[in-house]
Write a structure and sequence with these properties.
With 270 residues, the protein is of the alpha+beta class. It has helices at residues 19-25, 68-73, 75-78, 85-91, 125-135, 174-179, 233-243, and strands at residues 3-4, 10-15, 30-33, 41-47, 52-62, 95-110, 120-123, 144-145, 166-171, 196-197, 209-214, 218-221, 223-224, 229-230, 250-257, 260-266. Pfam families: ASCH.
Length: 270
Amino acid sequence: MVQTVRDIPMKGLVIREPWIDLILSGSKTWEMRSKPTLVRGQIALIRKGSGMVCGVAELVACHSALDRDGLTATGDRHGIGANQIADVLAAGWVVPWELAQVRRLPKPVPYRHPSGAVTWVNLPPEVTALIAQQSGETSNPEDTVEPARKLIPAAAPVSPPAPPVDSHIVHLTKGAIDNGYIRLTNALGLFPNDAIGGSNTATMAKGTVTVAFDPGPTVTTDVDGSKMILRDRGGTRAFFTSAGAMPGDQVLLERMAPRQIRIRMLKDSL
């Protein structure tokens, strides 16, 4: 049976930064999740929190869960850094969903995000039609296509790969929230060596880093190398308050430049 573009259903996969940017750039082909999926075929790629469909891809396979060795050996597919693997294993993000034929939309398409949707969004026909029209597949929304396949032309260009962002995920404990710190033991690779100091102000590091909390303030500080935390705890406490931090939440640290760190709260799975 032949369907019109407006009749073709499409599911949208919600993906956080920085992972969606790596996927759209072509440098990440495995989206890591905690559970397998039976979904196959063309899907929309949604940037979490934006209300926008940013691209499309074919979900071609769901592989078996990986152990530490498997994650280490396939870093070129999932884009997870070696310093993040322990956190990924702890969180259970070990099931690869394989994507192919990724296409970035020239203009992201808005949609209305349904309450409670975390992983998948069922996109309405009018959004599916806008994606198809933008692709150049058809200028008339009533033109026909084969079911659920050729919404985006295979010849559409893919942006050149972008270098991955150095990042690390930290799981928050009640003690960390109560005392205003983020444990940096496994994230020290994000910080310059000269920004790691001793246990008190007399042994502060010679160098510093600028830390931008999202949400929250931006502070300049060094790392207390004895406690493995940021020396300036005021910014961390303000961040926890603004983000409504709870035990078990995850924090993403990203090195944006050699001396610039961004810290954000992650509330959902990868």
